[in-house]
Amino acid sequence: MATDKSYYTILTDIGKAKIANASLVGEKVDFVKIQLGDGGGNEYNPTEEQTALKNIVWEGKVGNVKTDESMTNCLILESLIPASAGGFVVREIGYLDTEGNLLAISKYRSAYKPKVEDGAVIDMKVKTIFVVSNVNNIELKIDPTIIFATLKDLQDLDSKIDTTKTELTNNLETAKTELNTRIDTENEKQNIKIDQLIAGGSNVASTQTITIDDWVEDAESGFKSTVTHSLLTQRIVVNIIDATTKENVVTNFKIIDDNSIEIRSEVKVELNVYVINGNAETHFINATVDDNRVSEMTTYSSKKI
């Protein structure tokens, strides 16, 4: 029977019988189809005895069938009328099962669904809520191809996005801090100035400069110069750098004795020769030059000579 509300939804006699019978036989009623009607041109009050709408203008699939979170005996049916459908007024809505039986019918406030020719193409969402005696007898379903988003859904999503962005930013900053800490730690280990390498309380590093005048011609149409440091009895050549360009220089050298090495070059150029003393435990040393002579952090692996 109709209620005193202006717009409402009722179960038809067939719908009530189907739900009651489903409880007895252990089956479920499935709301699968939605029909829209124009009421024959006017609004009217649907009755439980109806088996069909007065005038069907569109039909399609029911999108979602679910229960209300706060009232578990309330059934919610949601459907989306696509933008391509239109040119009619909606005044009545019917819900049918797989056999085509009209299970529920709604009196709907008159609403015009525009068509493409009207210049206003919109999707129309239809949401119907009604009370049933036992929702366990209803087949609940969600159509994954249809998405319904309420204002609260959008607000929750917006809040979730903001929270995720904040968490991501914090995680990035934490990762950056941890990485910088690791880099700083490694730099502390490796950024050792040549002049600060000390063993046994004595300076064991030395920088020798070869000037233009230090070069003498050799027998191979090149030039040679001798680097000597009396304190170093066991030497390691760290690097040879052009004093002007500050670039590494590929040169030949050979050991003359415990205190001297001979540097060879094809041209006369001012060079800085970085040498460092080794000991019985340290035969190969990694050192980072960090001073005005190089103007940048450069790590070298020494060669024992």
From TrEMBL:
<protein>
    <submittedName>
        <fullName>Phage tail protein</fullName>
    </submittedName>
</protein>
<dbReference type="InterPro" id="IPR051934">
    <property type="entry name" value="Phage_Tail_Fiber_Structural"/>
</dbReference>
<dbReference type="InterPro" id="IPR022225">
    <property type="entry name" value="Phage_tail_fibre_N"/>
</dbReference>
<dbReference type="Pfam" id="PF12571">
    <property type="entry name" value="Phage_tail_fib"/>
</dbReference>
<feature type="domain" description="Phage tail fibre protein N-terminal">
    <location>
        <begin position="5"/>
        <end position="151"/>
    </location>
</feature>
